[in-house]
């Protein structure tokens, strides 16, 4: 399975900050936002990643992550000329996907919780073995901001709706999706919504019509942040700070994950740590190397 992370868009909800800096490069506490979705991909041991980015931000992302070889990965880039909806990233990634299954992530979504990698791996295995689509729901107090999933009394999915004025439930579909090899063709057939965008909800609706959509609820033991607004951006940073200071362990540390995955050796980790030796981040990597 490969992965695509959507890191384009205009970030208008974070204006004026994002007039000059792509939101996915802004810091969530002590590391760029893009590290968090990328770390989740790495925890699933997916090594081939495509970042969908704006043309003006391409060089910044390349400066930060390069081709991924320093992490034992392969990172490629696709240009999104204008934000035309979340489903467009799948179309732009057609050549990269090349008939494979894909883990699709929104670059401003941050996840944390006990056994999260295990749950994600189970979803990945399900799609690899049975095909279809596998997405996740999360209880929110403001569902009108999101794509909303409705269940019947037995827990079966009966409807999906994008940013409804009158939500049928409080369960938002979060920005992490597992899709089989049919997803690109499905995305290509999506027609622009009233907002003029290719909605990811339309892709999920097609899988629902085919009886191939599974939704798992992430319960109270999980934290999910859509860090695209000033409030949620701040909340995400404070959450990461609290967890890291309480545990002494980092969330979303891509170098540590690459090392623990066996993708880079101790010498490579120390080399990466030395590039940040004056920071707590670099000192943390050095501690990991010395364990």
Description:
- This protein has a single domain, classed as Spore Coat Polysaccharide Biosynthesis Protein SpsA, Chain A.
- The chain is built from 11 helices and 14 strands.
- The chain has helices spanning 35-43, 58-65, 88-92, 94-97, 116-130, 183-188, 200-209, 230-247, 254-260, 266-274, 280-289; strands spanning 2-6, 27-28, 31-32, 48-53, 74-79, 102-106, 109-113, 133-139, 147-151, 157-162, 171-173, 176-179, 213-218, 222-226.
- The strands form 4 sheets. Strands 1, 4, 5, 6, 8, 11, 12 and 13 form an 8-stranded mixed beta sheet that branches. Strands 2-3 form a two-stranded antiparallel sheet. Strands 7-14 form a two-stranded antiparallel ribbon.
- Strand 9 (147-151) and strand 10 form a beta hairpin.
- The longest helix has 18 residues, at 230-247.
- It is globular, with a radius of gyration of 19 Å.
- It starts with a strand and ends with a helix.
- Residues 2-241 form the Nucleotidyl transferase domain.
- Its EC number is 2.7.7.24.
- One of its GO terms (molecular function) is glucose-1-phosphate thymidylyltransferase activity.
């Amino acid at each position: 399975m490969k992965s695509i992370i959507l890191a384009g868009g205009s970030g208008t909800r974070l204006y004026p900050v994002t007039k000059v800096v792509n939101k996915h490069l802004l810091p969530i506490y002590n590391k760029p936002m893009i590290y968090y979705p990328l770390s989740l991909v790495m925890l699933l041991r997916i090594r081939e990643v495509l970042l969908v980015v704006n043309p003006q931000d391409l060089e910044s992302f390349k400066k930060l992550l390069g081709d991924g070889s320093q992490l034992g990965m392969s990172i490629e880039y696709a240009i999104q000329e204008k934000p035309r909806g979340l489903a467009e990233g799948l179309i732009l990634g057609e050549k990269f996907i090349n008939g494979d299954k894909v883990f699709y992530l929104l670059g401003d979504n941050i996840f944390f919780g006990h056994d999260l990698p295990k749950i994600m791996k189970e979803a990945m295995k399900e799609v690899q073995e049975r095909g279809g689509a596998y997405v996740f729901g999360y209880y929110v107090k403001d569902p009108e901001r999101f794509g909303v999933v409705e269940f019947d009394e037995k827990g079966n999915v009966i409807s999906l709706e994008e940013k409804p004025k009158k939500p049928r439930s409080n369960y938002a579909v979060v920005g992490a999706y597992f899709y089989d090899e049919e997803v690109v063709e499905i995305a290509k057939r999506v027609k622009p919504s009233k907002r003029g965008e290719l909605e990811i909800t339309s892709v999920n609706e097609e899988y629902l019509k085919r009886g191939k959509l599974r939704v798992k609820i992430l319960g109270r033991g999980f934290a999910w942040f859509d860090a695209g607004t000033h409030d949620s951006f701040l909340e995400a940073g404070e959450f990461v700070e609290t967890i890291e200071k309480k545990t002494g362990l980092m969330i979303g540390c891509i170098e540590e994950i690459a090392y623990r995955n066996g993708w880079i050796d101790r010498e490579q980790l120390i080399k990466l740590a030395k590039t940040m030796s004056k920071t707590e981040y670099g000192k943390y990597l050095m501690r990991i190397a010395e364990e």
